Amino acid sequence: MKILSTPRMERCIGCHSCSLACARLVHKRLSWDTAGIRIMSSGGLSTGFEAKTCLACDPAPCAMACPTGAYSQRKGGGVVVRRNLCIRCGDCAKACPVDAIYLDGVGEPFVCIHCGRCVPFCPHDCLEVVESSGRLPTEKSVMEGTP
Amino acid sequence: MSRSDFRVLIARLATGRGNVVNFEGRDTEAGGSGLAAALFNEYGDANKPWDDPDQPLVFAIGPLTGYFPLMSKTVCAFKSPYHDQYAESHGGGRSAICLRLADYDALVITGKAEKPSCLSIGSRHLELRDVHYIWGMDVQASGKMLRRMFGGSGHRSILRIGPAGERRSPMACINADTYRHFGRLGGGGVMGSKNLKAIVIQGDGSFDLPEGTEYSKLFQEVYRQLTATNMMDKYHNLGTPANVAALNELRALPCRNMQKTRDPAIENITGERFADHTLLRNTACSGCPVGCIHVGFVREKFMEPNQYLYRQVSYDHESIFATGSMLMVTNAFSVLGIIDMVEKMGLDVMSTGVALAWATEALEIGIISEKETLLPLRFGDAEVYKMAVHHLGVGSNEFYHLLGQGTMKPAEQYGGEEFACVLGQEMAGYATGEVFFTAQALGFRHSHLDTGGYSYDQKHENKKMEEAVDFLMRDEQSRVFLTSMVSCLFARSVYTEELLAYCLRSLGYDALADNIHAVSRHIQRIRWKTRLATGFDPIGVNIPKRFTEVATWKGPVDKDYLLALKGEYAKRIMERGKEEGN
Question: What is the pTM of this model?
């Protein structure tokens, strides 16, 4: 299974094209909040930008927290969301350790579905869709290089 | 979402309350420039002075804002402290998309706050907060405090003023999100006069898009065109500072208070030099994949041994021209050091550089003394200029207070009007010749972006006056539609009228799409009508002697041609402003 990754966020210029694309193409909304990827300024010393998006946990704390089965574990990491089962309790957002789930004004959750439709809109190639088995390439290569 | 009326928030500073108004005119005023003029006519008074508390400060976006890439600008309109006439200043950052996502086509601020205040708005809140404790802080320090005091990091726009704005200086800008500005004609002074230190706009709404796939397909095509053309290279690569070397080579870069138009030392402050040595990163206005904002750095040794601090400073052609070539400061880091001080004070960088260039020449020839300047201003001396910028920002004495009213003000008092590089306001960085000088002197915003006069100069060797003025009128009309959408003008080659019509139709604005020519003519007319009603006399505009003394690659500027252009353009502006119509 493929997942969205954000390996080159140091290149981000803060144009929000990815968030706007997700909202537009996946959720049919004009927004930079109701999107599976959201860009924040990191401020402080690094003064760059960071992406709030699903890290494709497996097992996913949000799925375990969901009381109605609206969230279920996605193969390869992340979650599958069935909106018709959601009661807008917000437990998924509370459970997410990296604040990747946005709740809109009526409590509807928005989370990345790892479709990759945001990727071509990034002008600096910050984003990438990768095989979930091949994620964290740096750690993997370090491990492989360890005797 | 498309609406038949504009949704406008009227925020009243005297009470801290406001109301939402459905304002008519979608099919005639369009948005941006057109909407701002209509709102000024509704809420302002042409005959009251600029600092009357009742005068409005308007921020307006357009029907395409947020919906298409590079529709990322906001039009700020007010009665200007610079000339007490109706004015526009355009800025980007996150301001435009935040207004869109706060669900407003415009924000109109009236009245005066009792105490120094910050106006905070969003799709679900309106608050006026007492922030007297940050009054007096520079723009950078204010920004840090405001970021901590208000939520919504990354999805908000913070507009604020520095000491210059608090003093109501006509050279004070409104800083937008650190690296962008509503720079010209004193919007910062208007905020100061209203006791308004800052405006925080939360873009916290979310809206349904049109049904079907037509809109998203069109977005994709527009995005493709914008990122596939040479725009990405032109504005993303070196950015507008690429003009520094090109204009210097052409003999069209104002240097040393425009005593000359080329200098070999300019090779040290070209776009290439800045990129190679000072560039840290690019950044972007929200909704723009081009990322034209170039951020460099200044590093200061504040203590021995080897204790440094650094700050990030954005630069572009205009700021390099104003603090570099005009002042003959030809070291890239020194230029950034001056820009950094301009940013802290919340001054307009172009006006600041040109004003100090005049003061330096005036001191050189002895019509003013160090009693006035407090400093030995000397072309090339960056450290002295940094201190002078501070004096200008805080208005250290009567001279700096007067200089901050506009370069022509001290020139009228002390002499030296003939070498004040003022074209309506302090000049922009193009000494391309007669058409540009005329265009800025008479242009609506006195901006190099009102029309492509600088480009016309470069493409036409002939001196056909009628043809040139026809171009200026036509080009202004075309640009005024873009600034009503509100597009970044860097995208003007992509956003043709045909493409704009497609975009408008995809959102349901069919009447606008069908009438672009008539609407743009109407907006051009109402803008001039409003400007004229507030006292603009194009026929009385004076172009100082320095502009006729200088030589470009075409040779000496032709004074007769310049005068003929000015006379004809002034006549056409008067005619357009007096045309009958809606």
Answer: 0.95
